[in-house]
Each structure stands twice: as structure tokens, then as C-alpha cells.
């Protein structure tokens, strides 16, 4: 079997959703590519390909991007933990040729593994293997830069300042564009309203057209050279020039102006949605306070090694996973779990990267490198979730591939056929109608808004503490028919405690608990530990003798000279001691002292506070059947099922029997329904894998849970499953609103255009206007605080 290699790239400057779809389609056609996806929302290209062809495929992929979108910069995302990446700002860099020279020179520096300059953002990114040489490399870089570009300053990147600078560049572009559009609109108004000679009017219209459509004309010209005919820029140019050709110059200018205003608003809306999604998942820590001796040094979280000591001040994010070794505080876990109530942490407690320290000063020993930390894995999974596309997204991708060519050919037919076969029909009349078809032929409203909707839904779910690994799983949560639960750690807390002590004969409850605690003092079993915890006193093991553990039965031991038997009913029967037949919710430990039955202790696993409510809410949102599979005994299983209102309980199951039972339940689901299994993600991996959607409960800090399931609930609350399903339903509702709205408006305008009722104005609204409205609507999915 050929080994697959996976690479990711940032497509910086990608602002055309239709082009993103074309890039994805073209790369998927390359020989050796297993899968390629372009996430328009995050501008990430993911390529999964045959190891033997990966370099060739990457080269061809870059050529495809360059051909379709020449202004887009392709930058590889590097995930090598052994590499140290340093980013510098080359302030004042304005010469692209000089930037290339600097890049080449820096790559020649001894110790530099890789260096490249992102000219658009003036960033120099350097990768090295040894942190100790960074100061020397910075000196050499500064020397090179000053030699080639004396006016350029080399500054270490400050992440926030850098982001502000990028935003400033984008804002300056918007300001220039708005200025051009305003001047164009003023000239257009003068030409329309003033009584000028025909030649002056045409000149004003032409200037107005060129000001508004300069970028569109340039892009269209480049696309024609590259053979990219079915492009919205080319189609709008043809439509507007066509309007000039049939003596409709005012309408040609107006359409170009309206189109560019729409594109401007669309760009603003997409930028805003990207920022909203980014802020929704803004859980990456910017720095760590590394303690070196008595000094504190601020460093990047990537630079901190396991075992290092870091200090987290009040108001700061915890940068890495670790254990508190000094101090106590309240931490805000909402960024990872969606929980609004702060959590108390003390010495010995675990804290995770992304938590926010609210009041006390914490000293933490780092237990994981940043790349292996929970927050890093969450970010990576959410950012890459769009590679697993929902059926709706796949449908739109296929639909868009055929929609544009079909509409364009229909436009050609409208321009040519009716004037030839309909008596009295003029070419100018039908060419105008054909131009309406051309303008409306771009599927941008769907291609932009639907991925944004799903990505926003995934981001919103993550903010609520529900980590969904792909759009396909988010969509699958809409059709949940059967929910199957594990018991321990899922519906119950998985923490055993003594809930009942019944003493008989000459001993009281205190003596019974003491004798039992002494008998269980050598065991590490959860039952024994819960008895010792309830006893709460120190056990003097010098008073224990002749300890014997009887497998499958219990313990026989001498405590303070008295023979004590502690175990199940089988132990009592084996020793010919009569005991009560106790049926209760929990595990029963029978106790006999000197061959005389002395009573029993009940140890129970508590049901979680919100389990019953979660089952009730699942029924309310349309789940047909709720089932519990457990390895515990039937009495315990049935008691839990009865208390929670479950439809079915299957107890005393071994792991392989759980899979077999799941197979039977899978046959009972409705034709379009989904079966989901909710477990702890560690012991239930086979069942999680077999279900349509595997949900891991309590994944916070659990690597096994995050790896095992399709959906991870980051807290121990079953009710979060209801939240996840509601977010999925809200996402689908908004996505289908956009599909119906976009296709409906386009269908209406196409029909009206065919009958000569709709003008180019309506056609532009059906293209860019609908896109803007669809993007704004898609952003509503991120308002998760309203979903209860």
C-alpha cells in the first residue's frame, strides 16, 4: 500500500469563493492525489497525496493556484515540532526584487533550515533547529538587510501588532476602492442628470466605467490569456461592454458600479465573518512566562519544554497543559468547555492551555509541549474540520461546477436563436436578455455562504464545549434517530461512594465500617478505596494479619484478632453464612465477623445531575429511542435506566457484546436516521468506531477521547449533546435558507430576464446582492449563546 503524505498551505489573498472551488477541483484531478480541500473561510488548502508523488503534486498545485489566482500567495503550514520558527517584520520593505535577494541570502546563513519572505505582509519567517543560535542569526539577518535595503528595519514580530498591520493594509485597500467608487458614481450622476452633448456624456460614462471597473477589467484580461473564460469578472465585462454595444451605456456603467459596490460589501462581509470565526476560536495563548532561576522570561509557548516551570499571572491565559505546584486561583474554562462558572484550582490540580487565570498567581510545571497540548489539538481539529465536507457542501460543489456553463450556454442560445426564428425579434433585444443571464451565472452566493455557515457552526459548537471533527458529522447530528449511551463515566459520574451502611447483631455502623475498611486496606479496587474514603481515619496495618484475597469472592483477614470476611454473596455462601438477599442500586459488600453475619455496605456510582434532563431533552428534539449498554449487573443497570427514563437497558455486556448489540440496534433505525454512541472515548473505541457518529464524553485533557470519536464533548455533561444537536439543526436551517434564497432569487430573475422584464440591475442584485445577504445570514449561526 502506498503511504499517504499530508500537507497544508495558506492561500493568502484568496478572496474568490468560486475560484477556491475551481482550485480544489483542479488539484483533485492530479495524478496521485487522494484528497484535496480548500477552506475558503480560513484560506487553507489541504492536500493528501501519495508519498512518492507529493513534491510533484505540490509543485503542480502551486501552478494551478498561480494560474487561477495569480495574486494569491501560497505558503506552506509547517508542523514540525523539532523546528523553531521565528518571525520578523521588515518594516519599510517596498521592493519585491530586493525581498527575493534578502530571502536567498538568509537561506545561506549557517544554521538556517528554511527562510522565506512574505512580501505582502513584510514578514521574514525563519526556521532553525537550535534556539541558541537565534541571536547570531538575527545579527546576520540585520547585516544582510541593511546592506541590501538600508532604510528597512528588522523587528521581532508582535503578534497583535502584526495582525493590526495586516488589517490596516486591508482597510487602506477598502478606502482606495471606496474613493474610486464614489468618484465613479459622481461622474455617472453628472452624465445622467446634466444636459451635456452626446460625446461628453460618452466620455464621462467611459471614465466612470474605467474607474469603477479597473480591477475587473484587469482580472478579466488576465483570465482570457490563461483561458479561464467562465469567470465572473469576464462575464460581467462581456455583459457591460455588451450594454455599451447596444447603446445602453448608462446601464453598462451602472451595472459595473453596482457590481463593484456589491463586491466591496461582499468582501467586507466575508472579512467580518472570518474575524468573527477567528475571535470565536481565539484560544491560542500568545506567550508564556518561563521561570529560569529567579528570573521570569516571556517566550513563545512553542519554545517551552516539558518539565519547565511557568508563571501565570491574574488575567493571563494558561499557555500550556501542566500541573499547579504553587498557588491557588479560580480559572475561566469557558473558551474550551463553554462553561460560564469558573473552576477552582489548587496545588496538584491540572490546568490546560486556553484556561484564563482570573485572580491568584499560579506556578505551573509543564506536562506537554504546546503542539501536544489540548488547546493546540482543538485548534488544529477545528481549523481542519472543513476537510470533511457535509453532503450539502458536496452537492453545492457539484452543482456550481455545472451551473455556470449551463447558464452561459443558455445565454448564447438566447442571443442567437430567438432573433432567427421569431418574426420581428431584434438581436439587440435578445442580446440584452442574454447579458442578464451572463451576469447571474456565478454561483458565489452558495459557494461563499455555505462553507462559512458550516465553519461557523463548528466554531460555535467548539465555543460551547462540543468539538465536531467535520461538517459531515455536524450535518449527521440533524438526523439522530437512536442514541446509545455507555453508563459509567457517561450517564454516571464514575466515582464510587458509600451510600448505605446496614449493621446487624452486636456491631454498630461505625464498627462495621471500621472492620470493613481494615479488611479492604490492601486493595486498590475503586470499591475498596471508596470504603477507606468513607472511613476517613488512618488504618493501623499492624493490627491486620492472615490477609487472603479470594478471587471473584472477596477478602478473608484477621483484624484485631477477629476473623473478618468482606465480599459478595458468593463469599458468604462459600463460608456457609446466611445473609440478606439485597437488591439495590449499587454494589453490595457483605461482612461477617467471626463467622457471624454483621451486615452490609452499599457502594454506588452517582448519576450525573443533568443526565435525566438530557434524556428528556433528546426526546423533545426528535430522538426516537434512547438505550444504555453497560457491563454492570442487571439490577444496577435497570435502576439507572428507570431513574433516567431510558427506553432500553442492556446490562452485563463485555466489550465485543456491546458491538454486537449496537449492530442489532443499527438495523432498527429509520432509513435516513443516524445512530450515535456516547461513551468515555477510552474503553469504548470499538463501539465509537461502529456508530454512525461516535461521541466521546469528558474529553477535556483526554488524548484518547479526542482521537477516538467524531464528536467530543469537552465536559462531563450529557446535556452538551443536546446543545450540539441544536447547533447542528440551526446550522442546517441557515444553510438551507441560503440555498433556497439564492437559487430562488436567481430562478426568478432568470425567468423574468428571459421574458425581457428583468434588467441588468436585477441581475447584479441576484449575483452580488444575494451573496452579501447570504454571507450576513450565514454569520448568524455563530450566535451560539441564544441556543439553549
If you had to describe this structure to a student in words, what would you say it looks like?
By secondary structure, this protein is α+β, with helices and mostly antiparallel strands. The chain has six domains: 4-77, Alpha-Beta Plaits, CATH 3.30.70.100; 98-162, Alpha-Beta Plaits; 196-277 and 389-452 and 732-782, no CATH class; 288-378, Calcium-transporting ATPase, cytoplasmic transduction domain A (Distorted Sandwich); 466-491 and 608-714, HAD superfamily/HAD-like (Rossmann fold, 3-Layer(aba) Sandwich); 493-606, Calcium-transporting ATPase, cytoplasmic domain N, CATH 3.40.1110. The protein contains 24 helices and 30 strands. The protein has a seven-stranded mixed β-sheet, sandwiched between helices. α5 (159-193) packs antiparallel against α8 (249-280), α7 (232-245) packs antiparallel against α8 and α8 (249-280) runs parallel beside α24 (760-778). The longest helix has 36 residues, at 719-754. It is elongated. The chain starts with a strand and ends in a 10-residue tail after the last helix. This is Cadmium-translocating P-type ATPase. Belongs to the cation transport ATPase (P-type) (TC 3.A.3) family. Type IB subfamily. Residues 5-73, 84-153 form the HMA domain.
List keywords for this structure.
788 residues, alpha+beta, Alpha-Beta Plaits, seven-stranded mixed beta sheet, six-stranded antiparallel beta sheet, 24 helices, 30 strands, 48% helix, elongated
Rough shape?
elongated
Compute the average pLDDT: 82
**Helical percentage:** 40-55%
Q: Assembly state here?
A: single chain
Number of DSSP helical runs:
24
Amino acid at each position: 500500500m502506498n503511504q499517504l503524505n499530508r500537507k497544508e498551505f495558506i492561500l493568502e489573498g484568496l478572496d474568490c469563493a468560486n475560484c477556491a472551488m475551481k482550485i480544489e477541483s483542479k488539484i483533485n484531478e492530479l495524478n496521485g492525489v487522494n484528497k484535496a480541500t480548500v477552506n475558503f473561510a480560513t484560506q487553507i488548502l489541504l492536500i493528501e497525496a501519495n508519498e512518492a508523488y507529493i513534491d510533484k503534486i505540490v509543485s503542480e498545485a502551486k501552478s494551478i493556484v498561480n494560474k487561477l489566482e495569480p495574486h494569491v500567495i501560497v505558503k506552506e503550514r509547517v508542523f514540525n515540532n523539532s523546528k523553531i520558527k521565528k518571525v520578523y517584520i521588515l518594516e519599510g520593505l517596498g521592493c519585491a526584487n530586493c525581498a527575493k535577494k534578502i530571502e536567498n541570502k538568509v537561506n545561506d546563513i549557517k544554521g538556517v533550515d528554511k527562510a522565506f519572505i512574505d512580501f505582502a505582509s513584510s514578514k521574514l519567517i525563519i526556521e532553525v533547529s537550535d534556539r541558541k543560535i537565534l541571536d547570531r542569526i538575527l545579527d546576520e539577518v540585520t547585516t544582510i538587510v541593511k546592506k541590501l535595503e538600508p532604510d528597512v528595519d528588522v523587528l521581532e514580530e508582535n503578534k497583535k501588532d502584526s495582525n493590526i498591520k495586516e488589517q490596516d493594509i486591508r482597510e487602506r485597500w477598502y478606502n482606495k476602492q471606496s474613493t474610486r467608487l464614489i468618484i465613479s458614481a459622481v461622474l455617472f450622476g453628472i452624465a445622467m442628470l446634466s444636459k451635456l452633448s452626446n460625446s461628453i456624456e460618452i466620455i464621462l460614462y467611459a471614465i466612470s466605467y474605467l474607474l469603477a471597473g479597473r480591477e475587473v477589467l484587469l482580472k478579466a484580461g488576465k483570465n482570457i490569456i490563461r483561458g479561464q473564460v467562465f469567470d465572473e469578472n469576464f462575464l460581467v465585462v462581456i455583459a457591460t461592454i455588451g450594454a455599451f454595444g447596444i447603446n445602453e451605456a448608462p446601464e453598462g456603467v451602472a451595472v459595473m458600479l453596482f457590481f463593484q459596490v456589491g463586491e466591496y460589501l461582499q468582501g467586507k462581509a466575508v472579512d467580518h465573518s472570518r474575524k468573527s470565526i477567528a475571535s470565536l476560536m481565539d484560544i491560542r495563548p500568545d506567550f508564556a512566562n518561563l521561570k529560569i532561576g529567579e528570573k521570569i522570561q516571556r517566550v513563545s509557548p512553542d519554545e517551552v519544554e516539558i518539565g519547565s516551570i511557568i508563571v501565570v499571572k491574574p488575567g493571563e491565559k494558561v499557555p500550556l497543559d501542566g500541573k499547579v505546584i504553587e498557588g491557588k486561583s479560580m480559572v475561566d474554562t469557558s473558551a474550551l468547555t463553554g462553561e460560564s462558572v469558573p473552576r477552582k484550582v489548587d496545588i496538584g490540580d491540572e490546568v490546560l492551555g486556553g484556561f484564563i487565570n482570573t485572580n491568584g498567581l499560579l506556578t505551573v510545571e509543564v506536562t506537554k509541549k504546546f503542539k501536544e497540548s489540548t488547546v493546540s489539538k482543538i485548534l488544529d481539529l477545528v481549523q481542519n474540520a472543513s476537510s470533511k465536507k457535509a453532503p450539502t457542501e458536496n452537492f453545492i460543489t457539484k452543482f456550481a461546477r455545472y451551473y455556470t456553463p449551463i447558464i452561459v450556454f443558455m445565454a448564447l442560445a438566447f442571443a442567437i436563436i430567438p432573433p432567427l426564428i421569431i418574426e420581428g425579434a431584434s438581436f439587440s433585444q435578445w442580446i440584452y436578455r442574454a447579458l442578464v443571464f451572463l451576469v447571474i451565472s456565478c454561483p458565489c452566493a452558495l459557494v461563499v455562504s455555505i462553507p462559512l455557515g458550516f465553519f461557523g457552526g463548528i466554531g460555535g459548537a467548539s465555543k460551547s464545549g462540543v468539538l465536531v471533527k467535520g461538517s459531515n458529522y455536524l450535518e449527521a447530528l440533524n438526523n439522530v434517530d437512536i442514541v446509545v449511551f455507555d453508563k459509567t463515566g457517561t450517564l454516571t459520574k464514575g466515582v464510587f461512594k458509600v451510600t448505605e451502611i446496614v449493621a446487624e447483631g452486636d456491631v454498630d455502623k461505625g464498627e462495621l465500617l471500621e472492620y470493613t475498611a481494615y479488611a479492604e486496606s490492601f486493595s486498590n479496587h475503586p470499591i475498596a478505596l471508596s470504603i477507606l474514603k468513607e472511613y476517613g481515619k488512618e488504618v493501623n496495618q499492624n493490627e491486620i494479619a492472615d490477609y487472603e484475597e479470594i478471587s471473584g469472592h472477596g477478602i478473608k483477614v484477621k483484624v484485631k484478632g477477629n476473623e473478618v470476611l468482606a465480599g459478595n454473596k458468593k463469599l458468604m455462601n462459600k463460608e456457609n453464612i446466611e445473609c440478606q438477599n439485597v437488591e439495590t442500586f449499587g454494589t453490595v459488600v457483605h461482612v461477617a465477623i467471626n463467622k457471624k453475619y454483621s451486615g452490609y455496605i452499599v457502594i454506588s456510582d452517582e448519576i450525573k445531575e443533568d443526565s435525566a434532563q438530557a434524556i428528556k431533552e433528546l426526546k423533545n428534539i426528535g430522538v426516537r429511542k434512547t438505550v444504555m449498554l453497560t457491563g454492570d449487573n442487571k439490577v444496577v443497570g435497570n435502576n439507572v435506566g428507570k431513574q433516567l427514563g431510558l427506553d432500553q437497558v442492556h446490562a452485563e455486556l463485555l466489550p465485543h457484546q456491546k458491538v454486537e448489540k449496537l449492530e442489532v440496534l443499527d438495523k432498527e433505525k429509520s432509513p435516513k436516521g443516524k445512530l450515535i454512541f456516547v461513551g468515555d472515548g477510552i474503553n469504548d473505541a470499538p463501539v465509537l468506531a461502529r456508530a454512525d457518529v461516535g461521541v466521546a464524553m469528558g474529553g477535556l485533557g483526554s488524548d484518547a477521547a479526542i482521537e477516538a470519536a467524531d464528536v467530543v464533548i469537552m465536559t462531563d455533561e450529557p446535556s452538551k449533546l443536546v446543545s450540539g444537536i441544536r447547533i447542528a439543526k440551526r446550522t442546517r436551517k441557515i444553510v438551507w435558507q441560503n440555498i433556497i434564497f439564492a437559487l430562488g432569487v436567481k430562478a426568478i430573475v432568470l425567468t423574468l430576464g428571459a421574458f425581457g422584464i428583468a434588467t441588468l440591475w436585477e441581475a447584479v442584485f441576484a449575483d452580488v446582492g444575494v451573496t452579501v445577504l447570504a454571507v450576513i445570514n450565514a454569520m448568524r449561526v455563530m450566535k451560539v449563546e441564544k441556543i439553549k
